[in-house]
Amino acid sequence: MPELILTEAEGRVGRITLNRPEALNALNLQLAHEIVDAALEFDADPEIGAIVITGSAKAFAAGADIKEMADRSYASMYLDGPFARWDEFTALRTPVIAAVAGFALGGGCELAMMCDVILAADSAKFGQPEINLGVIPGMGGTQRLTAAIGKYKAAELMLTGRMMGAEEAERAGLVSRVVPADDLLDEASTLAETIASKSLPVVYALKDALKASQNSGLAEGLRFEKQAFASLFSLNDQKEGMAAFVEKRPPNFTHD
Ligand code: HXC
Questions:
Q1: Which atom of ligand 1 is nearest to the CA of 67?
Q2: What is the end-to-end Cα distance of the chain in Å, rounded?
Q3: Which of 11, 115, 195, 225 is least enclosed by beta carbons within 10 angstroms?
Q4: What is the pLDDT of residues 138-180, one digit of tens each?
Q5: Is the CB of residue 47 less than 8 Å from the CB of residue 12?
Q6: Is this complex's ipTM strictly greater than 0.85?
Q7: Would residue 110 show up in a list of annotated catalytic residues for this protein?
Q8: From its phi and psi, is residue 11 left (phi > 0), alpha (psi between -120 and 50) or beta?
């Protein structure tokens, strides 16, 4: 039984709710596995025509779990990193809607970007703050954010690590639509029901075609990103950046 997510099916819609509130839904390996397993189960069920993935009012997900990663080595990140099963998630045939309220940072923003539609509450905050931890995005951010909002805006966000609110994210093209926070789950359900009412094979074909539009060059980019992300775990600045977060103090980077 999953411990860090809640799942429910209502009609033809499957819902996955990240439920690790004490860590703002930070994606540790257990949570990542539970999300992927639940999504695969819905995907295999022909009665399910759309999946909604959501978090809490405060956080969709505040990133990969920094405390779990902080002391890992290059070798362990590369061989068995938190990337492990996201390829299975992005290979789902069923459309996935990310219903985002609160923080969607780092791996949380990247998880939202692995979905087909991003519905944002007006409280949503998106960002790739990895640079402040002495690393770079590692679950697709350098590729998918750039594809979504263009190189210059993506570069400014990733180089500064700043957050972007829902309105700015919509203007930039990162989110499909912004809705009042109180309406987020209802709007997501209505949207999912609409999608789930379409022909499943047609939806699958459309999703494949949409993927093809995004994928030229992406596989190579993701391979590069994975290698680069893992390699940063050989830096002192990665150790310092993550230790500083855990100890609640500003990092003192030594650029080595
Ligand atoms: C581990 C986390 C966490 C994270 C929050 N927490 N984010 N734990 N990993 N990513 C924990 C905090 O340590 C704290 O635990 C509790 O959740 C509440 O967080 P606070 O910081 O007290 O909340 P608040 O002051 O409201 O600030 C919210 C926040 C901040 C701005 C979102 O928590 C934050 O900056 N989080 C880190 C965001 C981030 O850098 N994400 C990128 C991660 S790297 P305690 O025990 O103290 O109560 C990444 C790489 C992806 O995602 C690639 C992987 C392959």
A1: 1
A2: 43
A3: 11
A4: 999 999 999 999 999 999 999 999 999 999 999 999 999 999 9
A5: yes
A6: yes
A7: yes
A8: left
Q: Residues 110, 170, 187, 225: which is the catalytic one?
A: 110
Among protein residues, the one whose CA lies closest to atom 33 of ligand 1: 62
Residue of the CA atom closest to atom 54 of ligand 1: 138
Residue with tokens 């700043």: 162
Tell whether the torsion through CA atoms of 111, 115, 121 and 126 is positive or negative.
positive
CA of 129 to the centre of ligand 1 (A): 10
Q: Whose CA is nearest to atom 23 of ligand 1?
A: 24
pLDDT digits (tens, 9 = 90+) for 194-247: 999 988 888 888 888 888 888 767 787 788 788 878 888 998 889 999 999 999
Pairing relationship of beta strands 103-105 and 96-100 according to DSSP bridges: unpaired
**Quick check: is 64 catalytic?**
yes
* pLDDT score recorded for residue 216: 67
From the CA of 62, how far away is ligand 1's center (Å)?
5
CA dist list (Å): 252 to 40, 67, 133, 242, 256: 42, 18, 10, 11, 11
